[in-house]
Design a protein that fits this description.
Blueprint lengths: L1 H5 L11 H19 L6 H13 L2 H20 L7 H14 L8 H12 L5 E4 H17 L2 H8 L6 H18 L9 H9 L5 E4 L4 E4 L14 E4 H37 L16 H19 L14 E4 L6 H12 L2 E6 H4 L14 H16 L3 E6 L6 H4 L11 E6 L2 E6 L5 E7 L13 H6 L1 E4 L8 H10 L6 H7 L3 H12 L14 H32 L17 H8 L8 H15 L7 H12 L4 H19 L8 H24 L1
Parallel strand pairs: 1-2, 5-10, 5-11, 6-7, 7-10
Antiparallel strand pairs: 3-4, 8-9
Helix pairs in contact: 3-6, 4-5, 5-6, 7-10, 9-10, 12-18, 19-21, 21-22, 24-25
């Protein structure tokens, strides 16, 4: 029973208090029930049964008595038998047919009472409270010399049984009003029956219907000084009403509420906002030691979890900038799951440059409208939300500046939810805003963060790792690619520390193999070392590509001396190549693997593919003599075109400048030849 109650969270169960009090009240209730015997049926039930019984004719009463006697004999002969149920059904049917004017009483309770009453005898049982009230009333009539008047009205042959019942009831009501507080009104109708059916013999049963329960632990309006007066009939009537009306109504209410909530959840697509971290996510040392301290400090500041100065404790915004494939979204989704936040991801490219408002009505496409609805829903949810706006380089600066007010002390923003304009106050809410972008826009131009937003946000470039964290960044490229290579999985799945030891062993060129924690055979260790050597070579190339990509993205076009470098050195690139590495690969095969991978990546660059592949070969040290000569030609042509890129070629002055430049180059060549 305790386990069942403990699972009922809606009942506000308090362990050690409610179960103890409930057990004590139940024990006292059982004690009262045993003492009351047949009087455990409420006075209303017994009065209804008597009215029904005496309203029936002698033949019908005799038949019912015969059925009750037979059913009782079967029950006595066969313990646990339910054969007496047919008697209850018969009594219930006749009770319904009688259609008493008396207040409604469950027919089943009347039938059960009559069966238990007449299975043990042929008399009705009366309570001492009703007998006492009847006796005092009759004494009052004697004193007031109203006996004859009372009998004339109560025994009038012109009135029906029920009419005489209510006449006597009115007399007793007046008597109780004349003696306030002396008698329990609960037994008034039973006393009416004693006066109405005075020719029938009753047997009196002396039993208290109330008891004082002591030593209770809970607090309640009905409990005073840890004591509660338990009135049996009032308690049972309240319990019956609770189980037959309140409990089903409450259960129906909860069911309907749950249905409405589920329907609304489906309409809002709430399930899409639960963080779902990729199974391949690796929480590496770079995340633990670099990213989390940086990012965590900002999020703590936004949600007010850090800082004693309340004036600045809830200010700021997190702005992540890095090349594609660095796991910005995966990292933030993991962090949202760890912090217990809803992850509301907004797709920047779907919104586009044309949208400048967060009002869904102003969206020109259905996709943009849905993304704007998600933004407003995040504000409506308010608590425990991470609003993540991805690829902000595809959004207009005016749109991004709408969020500036969330990065200062006021933390307020206007929004539209379900057509209604609202001002959302996010002060004191566990609500954080994260924006993520890439250095290039889709047009190839450098992406510039709006100044007002950059001044208020904490900006971190996940791809530009410098200082002491450089080693961790390099290590993270291997850590994240481990699950892509089955030879490294055998080591990492048993112990990441062993993986770190093998990496250090190769990088330090130590002669002695380190002592490993896991139980590996020699072939597994040899395979892992051979694979790691090739992976370290690939990693170094990926790092150089990453650095060149970032450097090129940060450079203004007017200052370039070679074409922009757009190949990426991200975790995604690393993982694709690592998955294809096997122990028997030689240097030439590793070189072929790298070049094949980036040749595939360069296909999307169209006319820039050749220049980017030549630069890659230069970075990786794979460039041949012919490739180097071609690369120099491309750079020379690029510099020349870049120098006059802003001139109008149809203008004669522009053409003249080009001719003069070419003439100057030829003169320089002649001068060099003469000097030689």
């Amino acid at each position: 029973m305790n386990e069942q109650v403990e699972r009922d969270y809606a009942a506000a169960y308090l362990k050690g208090v409610h179960n103890s009090d409930a057990l004590q009240i139940y024990q006292y209730l059982q004690r009262l029930r045993e003492a009351l015997g047949i009087l455990q049926y409420s006075p209303k039930v017994r009065v209804a049964a008597q009215l029904f019984w005496f309203q029936s004719d002698d033949k019908r009463r005799a038949k019912l008595l015969q059925l009750i006697t037979a059913a009782y004999a079967i029950q006595q002969s066969f313990s646990g038998s339910r054969q007496f149920a047919f008697v209850e059904k018969e009594i219930m049917a006749q009770y319904h047919a009688a259609a008493l004017v008396y207040e409604p009483v469950p027919a089943q309770q009347v039938a059960q009472y009559l069966y238990h009453e007449f299975s043990a005898g042929t008399h009705f049982t009366s309570s001492q409270q009703a007998v006492h009230l009847q006796k005092d009333f009759k004494d009052f009539l004697q004193v007031q010399k109203k006996v004859a008047v009372f009998r004339q009205e109560a025994e009038s042959a012109d009135l029906t049984l029920e009419e005489r019942f209510y006449i006597i009831q009115n007399w007793l009501h007046a008597f109780l009003q004349a003696h306030p507080g002396k008698y329990d009104p609960l037994y008034l109708d039973e006393a009416v029956c004693l006066l109405l059916f005075h020719d029938h013999s009753y047997k009196e049963r002396t039993a208290a219907d109330a008891i004082l329960v002591t030593g209770l632990k809970g607090t309640h309006a009905m409990i005073t000084d840890q004591q509660y007066t338990l009135h049996y009939h009032a308690f049972m009537e309240k319990m019956l009403d609770y189980t037959t009306h309140i409990t089903p109504a409450f259960a129906a209410f909860n069911t309907q509420k749950e249905q409405l909530i589920n329907t609304y959840k489906q309409a809002l697509k709430i399930s899409e906002f639960e963080p779902k971290v990729l199974s391949s996510f690796v929480r590496n040392r770079l995340i633990n030691e670099v990213y989390f301290p940086l990012i965590g400090a900002n999020l703590a500041k936004q949600i007010g979890a850090a800082g004693d100065d309340k004036r600045t404790a809830r200010m700021g915004m997190l702005l992540l900038v890095s090349p594609p494939g660095y796991g910005k979204t995966t990292l933030m989704e993991y962090l949202a799951k760890t912090m217990g936040l809803h992850f509301v991801k907004i797709n920047g490219p779907t919104i586009g440059h044309s949208i400048t408002s967060i009002d869904p009505v102003e969206a020109t496409t259905s996709g943009a409208r849905e993304e704007l609805k998600k933004i407003n829903l995040a504000f409506e949810m308010a608590d425990n939300v991470m609003l993540y706006i991805d690829d902000i380089q595809h959004c207009s600066a005016e749109f991004l500046q709408k969020f500036i007010s969330l990065a200062d002390g006021q933390r307020k923003m206007d929004g539209i939810f379900e057509g209604a304009s609202k001002t959302y106050d996010l002060r004191g809410k566990r609500f954080c805003v994260v924006m993520a972008g890439n250095p290039y826009t889709e047009s190839g131009e450098q992406f510039k963060i709006p100044d007002m937003l950059a001044n208020r946000a904490d900006v971190y470039n996940l791809g530009d790792v410098i200082g002491n964290s450089g080693y961790l960044f390099n290590l993270s490229l291997i850590e994240n690619s481990v699950q892509e290579n089955r030879y490294l999985q055998r080591i990492a799945n048993r112990s990441l520390e062993d993986l770190y030891k093998l990496i250090t062993y190769i990088e330090s060129q130590n002669d002695m193999l380190p002592e490993l924690e896991g139980n590996y055979n020699s072939q597994e260790v040899d395979d892992a070392i051979a694979v790691l050597k090739n992976i370290l070579l690939i990693r170094d190339i990926v790092i150089r590509v990453n650095q060149q990509y970032i450097s090129s993205a940060a450079m203004k076009d007017a200052y370039r001396v070679e074409p922009p470098f757009k190949l990426q050195g991200s975790y995604r690139n690393m993982n694709k190549m690592v998955g294809k590495v096997v122990p028997l690969m030689n240097m030439e095969e590793v070189k072929t693997l790298v070049l094949s991978h980036y040749e595939g990546e360069s296909q999307t660059l169209t006319s820039d593919a050749e220049a980017n592949l030549l630069k890659l070969k230069e970075l990786a040290g794979f460039i041949s003599g012919a490739d180097k000569e071609r690369w120099e030609q491309i750079k020379t042509i690029f510099i020349k075109n870049n120098k006059f890129g802003g001139l109008d070629q149809s203008d004669t002055s522009g053409q003249l400048l080009q001719q003069l430049s070419m003439f100057n180059e030829h003169l320089e060549a002649i001068a060099k030849a003469i000097r030689r």
